[in-house]
Amino acid sequence: MSRILLVEDHDRLAQLMCKALAAAGIAVDVMDRIDTAWTAMRQLPYQAVILDRGLPDGDGLSLLQRVRGAGLHLPCLVLTARDALHDRIEGLEAGADDYLPKPFAMDELVARVRALLRRPADVRPLAPSHDDLMLRPDAGLLCCADESVTLAPAEMQIMRSAMPAAQCSQAACTASAPTGKNSGRSTGSKSCTRKFSVTPRARSSA
């Protein structure tokens, strides 16, 4: 059974949504605040999230931006009473996969969630690492042993993109390394090296 996270602070609406989704064979965990939802997403492998924008502790899009910045690419359906064009564009640009204005029919909600669940989730580690380097996107840090450097958002995105590329490069080098009788011969290929360089602006102990 698929399990999704519903972030909605309206109790009656949340109950109706859970009932409709459960009837469709979809299990639902309900959170009513951004901070508790963020904790749940980091602990459990949800297949999708339904996210209301108007939450007691802020705009739900701030949670979506945090999730996307951490490399968690689970499908997201945004719910909101704001149905203006610029509101829909804002939600999609923040990382939403779909947008459903309130009020809505439960049958349509279920159909949209099923469509999201058919999409393969691209889930990246919340703390990607390579050799002795580790990124902590939630804290904006690049860590090495007991040292850490604060990264700007753009630097964090660059490092998140560079680490998988470096891992692929290392795997290719390992696969092409000479073995056996030819191990002492030169293959003419260059050795692989990986260098990560970030100009530190602030340091803190890990």
- What is the topology, as strand order, of the major beta sheet? 2-1-3-7-8
Multimeric organization: single chain
- Secondary structure: number of strands: 14
Q: Average pLDDT value?
A: 77
SS class: alpha/beta
Strand content: 15-25%
Q: Could you give the distance between the termini?
A: 39 Å
Structural write-up:
- The protein starts with a strand and ends with a strand.
- It contains six helices and 14 strands.
- By secondary structure, the chain is an alpha/beta fold.
- It folds into two domains: 2-123, Rossmann fold, CATH 3.40.50; 129-176 and 192-205, no CATH class.
- Helix content is 38%, strand content 25%.
- It is elongated.
- Helix 4 links the parallel strand 7 (76-80) and strand 8 (98-101).
- The strands form four sheets. The protein has a five-stranded parallel beta sheet, sandwiched between helices.
- The relative contact order is 0.11.
Blueprint of the fold:
Blueprint: E1 2-7, H1 11-23, E2 26-31, H2 34-43, E3 48-52, E4 54-55, E5 58-59, H3 60-69, E6 72-73, E7 76-80, H4 85-93, E8 98-101, H5 106-117, E9 122-123, E10 129-130, E11 133-136, E12 141-144, E13 147-150, H6 153-176, E14 203-205
Parallel strand pairs: 1-2, 1-3, 3-7, 7-8
Antiparallel strand pairs: 4-5, 6-9, 10-11, 11-12, 12-13, 13-14
For this entry, give a set of tags:
2 domains, 5-stranded antiparallel β-sheet, 5-stranded parallel β-sheet, Rossmann fold, 206 residues, alpha/beta, disordered C terminus
